[in-house]
Amino acid sequence: MRDDILRETRERMQKAVQHFTDELRGVRTGRAAPGLVEGIRVNYYGSLTPLKQLATISIPEPRQIVIKPFDPSVAGEVEKAIQKSDLGITPQADGKLIRLNLPPMSQEQRDKTVARVKEMAEECRVSVRNIRRDGNRRAEQAGKDKILPEDDVKSLQAEIQEQTRKSEKEIDEVLKSKSEEIRSL
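Predicted structure:
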């Protein structure tokens, strides 16, 4: 029981951190990255499909993204989806390829983006703390139900707290790295 609680808590915390990291791939920095457009949903024959399933996405230059749909007839829908997204970039299409030229970010845009990334990091920290709370409650309940001895409950809670510290440290490292990337270009 003790190992199950710890394992489940650890896995949930790792998933929360991974989700935060994945979300950051879609945050614009001064440099082009496939993650900016991969998650954009395109109306493909009546169903919303992620762009990465409909096209190849390449970065020929540091400030340019080229999208080549597998099916050229869907290029118009891809273009519409990009315009509707919050990227703020106007796509240039030539029938087969769609080019996105990323303008340099102003200092104000960089500051806003860093602030948004910090908010996302704080949301992830809150999620990790909620997972810690759930793990601690399960440990306490196991102690009350006499499944675990009191000493095991205390040591389990200490291990959960240690895992929380590790997860928060990982979040801080990812945040620092992304903030530096945004400010550096």
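Summary: The chain has a mean pLDDT of 90.
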